[in-house]
Amino acid sequence: MEPLLVRAARREPVERTPVWFMRQAGRSLPEYRELRRGRTLFDIVRDPGLCAEVTLQPVRRHDVDAAVMFADIMLPVLGMGVDVELVENVGPVVQQPIVSAADVERLRVGEPDPSILEAIAIVRRELRDDQAVVGFCGGVFTVAGYLVEGKPSRDFVKVKTLMYSRPEVWHALCDKLADTFATYVQAKAHAGADVVQLFDSWVGALSVADYLEFVAPYSARILAALDVPTIHFGTGTTHLLPAMSEAGGDVIGLDWRIALDEGWELVGEERGVQGNLDPTLLLGPWERVEAGARSVLDRAGGRPGHIFNLGHGVLPQTLPDVLGRLRELVHELTTEVRV
């Protein structure tokens, strides 16, 4: 039997709605915090056994339908010759930001880190047949944003200035990123990833016109490189949903800012959708969590192609038991609908 998530991503009839959570592995779990003590994130990611263990922790605890590989979206650029530091409570910090054509020229088209591929193989062996391995990759805008800004940004002024003033430098950078990422996701699928999600977390900062000119062709290239089901996700992207759907993805991820049925209409019925409970809701009373989940499922209407998830990642302060209870609720409600 193929994993439930794979069948849902293909919009095939399924016995219940699949559930997984972005950032389900990591800071919200006490077992992760214990394992992380004295180690950096890159220490864990580069140790296949540790990476697999962290990836599997939420699957054991919550019995979700997928294990999303524990990694960071900046991992592939390390192989391109970029010096990245993951600073606690800040995010990725690049020591020498990209500012010129010469900086782009110095970048290599990187090869996938074999340790993450070995970790994928370990995880695939540990899962049940009906559970999926989700590999992920950062989108070109989000990763290029860190490379150009040098650190997380709210307004992306340096990025947009580069786009508008020196578009040839921007396109050369994205070309190398797309080549590296396409090879990266292909290797993940070959190693055992059943589904791949493209996370372009901050692409919602762009207008539709800028997205189409500066980002969509590269996202399309990465997604087209895969022969496994794909999920295409960004936040703040309500205005971009039709364009993102056109760029590719069997499933389009929706954040919490739009009702699921309205988002599905923008995406098109020929695509599946993933989402889209507000992650902050999980910090409130269970009654609100349950009401929010029921609303999402009601708007999905039991149609083929819905994958239940949050509208962004699990917040670090989320109580682990809430995720398990939410998974159980979604399975219970959607199994009842199909009986």
Key words describing this protein structure:
339 residues, alpha/beta, TIM Barrel, seven-stranded parallel sheet, two-stranded antiparallel ribbon, 16 helices, 12% strand
Give the topology.
Layout: H1 4-9, H2 30-36, H3 41-45, H4 48-62, E1 66-68, H5 75-78, E2 84-87, E3 91-94, H6 101-106, H7 114-126, E4 132-138, H8 140-149, H9 157-165, H10 167-191, E5 195-199, H11 208-214, H12 216-224, E6 230-233, H13 241-247, E7 251-253, H14 260-267, E8 272-277, H15 286-300, E9 306-310, H16 320-338
Parallel strand pairs: 1-4, 4-5, 5-6, 6-7, 7-8, 8-9
Antiparallel strand pairs: 2-3
Q: Give the CA-CA distance, first to last residue.
A: 20 Å
CATH C-level label:
Alpha Beta
Poorly predicted runs of 5 or more residues: none
CATH architecture classification: Alpha-Beta Barrel
Work out the strand percent. Answer: 5-15%
Number of domains: 1
Q: How many strands?
A: 9
Mean pLDDT: 96
How does this structure look, described?
49% of the residues lie in helices and 12% in strands. It has 339 residues and is of the alpha/beta class. The chain has one domain: Alpha-Beta Barrel (TIM Barrel). β2 and β3 form a beta hairpin. The mean pLDDT is 96. α4 packs parallel to α7 and α12 packs across α13. Strands 1-4-5-6-7-8-9 form a seven-stranded parallel β-sheet.
